[in-house]
Design goal:
Elements: E1 2-6, E2 15-20, E3 25-31, E4 39-44, E5 50-56, E6 64-69, E7 72-79, E8 88-93, E9 101-107, E10 112-117, E11 120-126, E12 135-140, H1 146-163
Antiparallel strand pairs: 1-2, 1-12, 2-3, 3-4, 4-5, 5-6, 6-7, 7-8, 8-9, 9-10, 10-11, 11-12
């Protein structure tokens, strides 16, 4: 299933809709103002339920974001320290969502990257699929945890933008 997301979702107090490829509202990214650290809630459009909370870790050696569900951390996203030619990001998953890791690699500046788990592509991010300015698509494989993968994509977009603010 494909979803459309605006680039640079993150901003204090910003709210943004993630839509289906057909333009239907699917999730609201609710930017929480007046918080000590950047915090965003991903809310299901139909139920209003918070399906994920994305928080930037306050103190860490390298920029890190955490994804929570029901007040429990389900994933930690950060840039891999050692990469050969290109940036790579890693989402370390908690046992509650199957454990293991999601490796994210590709061209982050152009929003052309892949999310893989155990060598299998579970989501593809691409700006090429749609001509809408400042928007990219996330194609999530059937049977995957949609809120988790959308949250990982948002984290990667934010972490890359912070590290490379001049690249738009």
């Amino acid at each position: 299933m494909k979803f459309l997301m605006r680039e640079r979702v993150f901003g204090i107090g910003d709210d943004h809709w993630i839509t289906t490829e057909h333009g239907d509202k699917a999730f609201l990214v609710d930017g929480k103002a007046l918080r000590v650290r950047e915090t965003f809630e991903l809310k299901d459009h139909h139920t209003g339920e918070i399906v994920a909370v994305i928080k930037k870790k306050l103190i860490s050696v390298r920029d890190t974001m955490m994804i929570e569900r029901d007040d429990d951390r389900i994933a930690t996203v950060r840039k891999k320290l050692i990469t050969v030619f290109r940036d790579k990001y890693l989402a370390e998953l908690e046992d509650s969502v199957g454990g293991g890791e999601i490796e994210v690699h590709g061209n982050f500046t152009d929003h052309e990257f892949t999310l893989e788990r155990d060598g299998r592509r579970i989501a593809q991010v691409s700006k090429k699929w749609f001509s809408i300015r400042d928007t990219y698509a996330i194609d999530v494989a059937d049977g995957e945890d949609i809120p988790l993968l959308l949250s990982v994509a948002v984290c990667v977009d934010h972490l890359h933008a912070e590290e490379h603010p001049h690249e738009v």
